[in-house]
Amino acid sequence: xxxxxxxxxxxxxAAAHALAACGxxxxxxxxxxxxxxxxxxxxxxxxxxxxxxxxxxxKAAAEVAGELEGVFASTADELDALERPQDVADLxxxxxx
Length: 97
Description:
- By secondary structure, this protein is mainly alpha-helical.
- About 80% of the residues lie in helices and about 0% in strands.
- It is built from 4 helices and no strands.
- Helix 1 runs antiparallel to helix 2 and helix 3 (about 60-80) runs antiparallel to helix 4 (about 90-95).
- The radius of gyration is 15 Å and the shape is elongated.
């Protein structure tokens, strides 16, 4: 579970840093700030979801997995809704896929 969170975080940071390195116009900066905000919220949401006691049985584990699925789906929807600068559009689309 932590690996998945780390992977998403790394991808989000890579996209944001790649864009930041490409230029410094207002549109790019807005995009980077939005991606960073979504990433921070993802980390908070996942941390909150898994911060309780470990699931005591398979049903409880499935419930946690279902909650995490919702967290990641919501994050993907938020990222998909962002206006992408042209120079990172392909990378952004891969991230959301």
